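User: I'm curious whether this sequence folds into something compact or stays loose and floppy. Could you predict its structure so I can see for myself?
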Amino acid sequence: MQVGVIMGGVSSERDISMLSGKYIIDNLDRKKYEVLPIPINTQYELIDRVKCVQFAFIALHGEFGEDGTVQAMLKSMDVPFSGSNVMSSALCMDKDATKKMLVGLKVPTPKWIMVKKGKEFKIEDIEKIPYPLVVKPNNGGSSIGVNIVSNREGLIEALKTAFEFDEEIIIEEFIGGEEVTCCILDGKLLPVLSIKPKKDAWFDYKSKYEDKGAEEIVVKLDKEVEDEIKKMTKVCWENLKLKVYARIDVIIKDKKPYVLEINTLPGMTQNSLFPKSAKAAGISFPKLLDEIIKLSLR
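Assistant: Here's the prediction. I'll summarize afterward.
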């Protein structure tokens, strides 16, 4: 089978996408697959370059990757692709829409407010949520453009930074606690990883992608918390109609878990969380890639 690995793209996460793509290419079983790297710089390049492939492995992140756009293009061209469908991809990329769904499903998530570039808003309205606050692009990832602020001056500066990456910004209450990530393969929860940055105060871009930037280990949770996380992730998987694989980021405070966000195309670099969680379940990276392809085709 000829597998095209689509990487690069147009988003601020292009560099991470290239790393994901390379790691996928290096680990696909050459006895099973003819591997075709497809690095793209524009959306239009994709149309000509995927016509000949039998399967598209999407290693894109952010805009034109996780937002349903590339999935819609591949679907219209009748090219099978990895991961969730158009609707689920678009929904989970939009943090505001995802959180509204979570509230409706009674899944705890930090309080938030969204502001839009060019639309008037009052700092006082934002400050109804107590400091510290997390400021992040609504449609971003990899912690790019994200800041934690503790006062108005910091908030104004963080908004300026975040607006460089998106026209919609989420301002969210900061919940201090244990950050964990829940990787799901075919609806089944893999070992939960605890995330503890080694150098930085929180799990930012450097902690995620630098070698030894964070300690990520399988965590033994209290049964009550573990049961709640299993319930929450199942609700998310089923109701947001996720497919094949996904990663759900959670914060635990006072034995209460909160869903932070849902990733339909988790990072696949050598430092990424999903391969580490799969490894803890006894699934090698080449085997994980096999499973993703098999499940996507199914």
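Summary: The mean pLDDT is 91. The first strand starts at residue 2 and ends at 8.
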